[in-house]
Specification:
Blueprint (H helix, E strand, L loop, with lengths): L1 E14 L5 E3 L2 E3 L3 E4 L6 H14 L4 H4 L12 H14 L2 E11 L9 H12 L6 E6 L5 H4 L3 E12 L1
Parallel strand pairs: 5-6
Antiparallel strand pairs: 1-4, 1-7, 2-3, 5-7
Helix pairs in contact: 1-3
Bound molecules: zinc ion.
Protein name: 2-C-methyl-D-erythritol 2,4-cyclodiphosphate synthase
Enzyme class: lyase
Subunit structure: Homotrimer.
């Protein structure tokens, strides 16, 4: 049996040399950083939501509430790992993921392969099953004004 899931996440963006930019678990060299309670890794947040969605198990807000002080500045790869553990318990296995980043800045192209290989290793999936794409909003709206960055992720899961 196959199940599809999708997830979306947005965080505010700031120019901050002190705070790292982390996307898909990869630490990226950038003047920009995402603002959030955890490490604000929108790719992992959208991905974990997609995995939970595929299994019909709610969203990361339920499983990892941002009011929980233990999650402050937490490495989101831990959220991903816990979500994957849960999927294993339920007998699900990831087949492939397809993610699109949305925003004007930072440009994703120079970071794409680093994000892809980070996720490939976190998910234990071959790189051709981990797709990372990016689009702008043609300078429209908040994302167009570089006030934030968004991520959309679709996953296919197989229940053994
Ligand atoms: Zn988030």
């Amino acid at each position: 049996m196959y199940r599809i899931g999708q997830g979306l996440d947005f965080h505010r963006l700031e120019i901050n040399q002190e705070r790292p930019l982390i996307l898909g678990g990869a630490l990226l060299d950038s003047e920009y950083a995402l603002v959030g309670h955890s490490d604000a890794d929108i790719v992992i947040h959208a991905l974990a939501d997609a995995i939970l969605g595929a299994m019909g198990l709610g969203d990361i807000g339920q499983h990892f509430p941002d009011t929980d002080p233990s999650l402050k500045n937490m490495d989101s790869s831990i959220i991903l790992k816990k979500t994957l553990d849960l999927s294993k318990e339920k007998g699900f296995q990831l087949v492939n993921i397809d993610c699109t980043l949305m925003g004007e800045r930072p440009k994703i192209a120079p970071h794409r392969t680093k994000i892809q290989s980070s996720l490939s290793s976190l998910l234990n999936l071959p790189e051709d099953c981990v797709s990372i794409k990016a689009t702008t909003t043609e300078k429209m709206g908040a994302l167009g004004r570089t006030e934030g960055l968004g991520a959309s992720c679709v996953v296919l899961m197989e229940k053994k």
